[in-house]
Design brief:
- Strands 1, 2, 3, 4, 5, 6 and 7 form a 7-stranded mixed β-sheet that branches. A 6-stranded antiparallel β-sheet has the order 8-11-12-13-10-9.
- The chain is extended.
- The protein has 5 domains: 62 residues, no CATH class; 57 residues, no CATH class; 161 residues, Ribonuclease H-like superfamily/Ribonuclease H (Nucleotidyltransferase, domain 5), CATH 3.30.420.10; 76 residues, SH3 type barrels, CATH 2.30.30; 75 residues, no CATH class.
- It is α+β, with helices and mostly antiparallel strands and 569 residues long.
- About 2% of the residues have low confidence.
- Helix 1 packs across helix 3 and helix 11 crosses helix 12.
């Protein structure tokens, strides 16, 4: 695309600075100076490149010498059709001006799609994206010009960290209030805030939901849904806001094997990737809904948000990773994801608080008394988990272990009184002869007791297994297995396949290359050791670079598919 007048002058000034430096030198000295310039990284105006080539510098010197007017040399030619825009009629221009003036974040591609959606605006000819962009630039409605009024002092430079693989780090944040929605319970207008959870490695948005109350309970319910669908992360990164520093959230994530990290004090905006994803909602959803001049229910707003994220954001190629968030996140094999049962999630993500058990086994909570299920807890400090909507159920935890449900204390079920009754039952009494005798249900009672015991055992056993699984999962992805050359594999599996590639290529592979190798093995494998050695050896004999793991994997995939087709024939 041709530049405007001031942009062309900026490019000419840069070229003239190079030419004036070289014009009076002798050929040998000029050649040495050009060698230095081609190796130096430069800030070239309106160019994504950082280096100059020898042919480009010599071309500028030639144009400067043959030019009869030095003021016009090295200046790009101006478009002959500037200001005409033959592919845009008056109706299309008016529509583009109105749409971009309302919201500067509407992209050129979105504006072109909107023109095509109206027959009266696309019946003559279809303009290209470059034509639309050039027209908007001519009327000072390009994004750079419209955003020039922003205060540059508010922009801070940060160096974000990078997770090694998906599910390693999740980031969570809440944006400030801006959107009014209708509360379906009361019919009143309330401010809704979006809560966004994003995967650090892939930039995949796991959930983006508007809520009316930003509380710890609401955040825990959203996390429970996300963990149930996507699995357990290794780390949850959040700021120091009230919903993220509570005891209930901290203990719930710790029990399922997830560590919580918080930003440093007085630096609440250090979340990087999740904050960069927030403008997707404010610029492309909230601004559009507010321009429609009507109020939406909360559920409908969340449907719009889900459609925007799933249909647009997740499928666009990210400028940093070079992949779509969906493609990069799904590259993690299923066997490396840690899941937990719904029963355990429902128990762990209940609200919790500390409580003290009296010497008679009673816990006081919400102006009511509860009896603990085990006498060993008498006189100890415990943690109770409860649901605000059902005060009859309170679960007792001690040392990260569930001890059962504390029953509501009513006259007649006191623990000490029950012991006295049980002692009386120990004395045998004669069995009266009564006809007919009731059915003998001992087996049924034993089965019910066994099920209750297994439920308690499953919860605690599953929580202990999650912690062990977390360590094994971390070790598999971050450690590289080094084996001696004399060792022979009894079975050639995926781990042996990855190790053999590392040996043949004579280098260590990072976590992302591990995932790529696992993906090819799961989709086209299993491969034999002889096949891997043969294909990799052929490529190495052709001087194929060892850093291009994708090329080796593609060759293995093609050979496996060819072998399968030959067998089918």
């Amino acid at each position: 695309m041709r530049r405007l007048k001031h942009e062309r002058l900026d490019k000419k000034a840069f070229r003239m600075g190079i030419v004036l430096m070289l014009r009076d030198m002798d050929p040998a000295e000029r050649s040495r100076k050009i060698d230095e310039l081609t190796k130096r990284q430069m800030d070239i105006p309106y160019s994504q490149k950082g280096y100059l080539s020898r042919s480009t510098i010599y071309r500028w010197l030639h144009e400067y010498r043959i030019s009869s007017d030095q003021s016009q040399s090295l200046l790009d030619k101006e478009r002959s059709d500037r200001g005409e825009f033959r592919a845009l009629n008056h109706d299309q221009k008016d529509a583009l001006i109105a749409w971009r003036s309302e919201n500067r974040y509407r992209t050129v591609a979105n504006l072109r799609d909107e023109l095509l959606a109206y027959p009266q605006l696309s019946d003559v000819r279809v303009p290209s994206e470059s034509t639309i962009a050039r027209f908007l630039q001519s009327v000072n409605l390009d994004r750079k010009t419209m955003g020039a009024s922003e205060d540059p002092s508010k922009k801070r430079i940060r160096l974000p960290f990078e997770a090694e693989y998906p599910q390693q780090i999740w980031q969570i944040d809440t944006k400030g209030p801006k959107l009014e929605v209708i509360d379906q319970d009361t019919g009143e207008l309330k401010i809704a805030k979006p809560v966004v959870i994003i995967d650090d490695c892939s930039r995949y948005i796991l959930i983006a939901s508007y809520v009316l109350e930003e509380t710890e309970h609401v955040v825990m319910q959203l996390l429970r849904v996300v963990v149930s669908v996507y699995g357990i992360p290794e780390t949850l990164y959040a700021d120091r806001g009230g919903p993220y520093v509570g005891h209930s959230l901290s203990r719930a994530m710790t029990l399922i094997g997830c560590k919580i990290l918080h930003t440093k004090p007085r630096d609440p905006s250090a979340k990087g990737k999740v904050e960069k994803a927030m403008p997707i909602l404010s610029n492309h959803l909230e601004s559009e809904l507010m321009l429609l001049n009507r109020k939406y229910p909360l559920e409908e707003v969340n449907e719009y948000a889900q459609a925007l994220i799933s249909q647009d954001y997740q499928k666009k190629r990210h400028s940093v990773t070079g992949q779509t968030p969906e493609e990069r996140y799904l590259s993690l094999p299923v066997q490396y994801r840690r899941f937990v049962s719904e029963a355990t999630l429902n128990m762990v993500f209940l609200d919790s608080k500390k409580a003290h058990v009296s010497n008679t086994g009673i816990i006081k909570y919400n102006r009511q008394k509860y009896l603990v299920p085990d006498a060993t807890l008498f006189g100890k400090d415990v943690v109770i988990r409860f649901d605000d909507t059902d005060s009859s159920q309170v679960h007792v935890w001690h040392n990260d272990r569930c001890w059962g449900e504390a029953k509501l204390h009513i006259p007649g079920n006191h623990y000490l009184e029950r012991l006295e009754l049980l002692n009386q039952f120990d004395k045998p009494k004669p069995t009266p002869s009564v006809k007919p005798a009731p059915p003998y249900n001992r087996i049924s009672r034993l089965l019910a007791a066994h099920r209750r015991e297994m439920e308690d055992m499953d919860l605690n056993t599953e929580l202990a297994a999650l912690e062990k699984e977390r360590e094994e999962f971390r070790a598999q992805l971050t450690s590289s297995k080094v084996r001696s050359g004399t060792e022979k594999y009894e079975l050639f599996g995926v781990e042996e396949f990855v190790h053999l590639l590392s040996v043949l290529l004579r280098r260590q592979m990072d976590a992302y290359e591990h995932l790529s190798a696992h993906t090819v093995w799961n989709s086209c494998g299993p491969f034999s050791e002889e096949m891997v050695r043969r294909i990799v050896g052929q490529l190495l004999g052709q001087n194929h670079p060892t850093t291009d793991l994708k090329g080796f994997l593609n060759a293995l995939r093609i050979d496996a598919l060819t072998t399968t087709k030959d067998k089918e024939r």
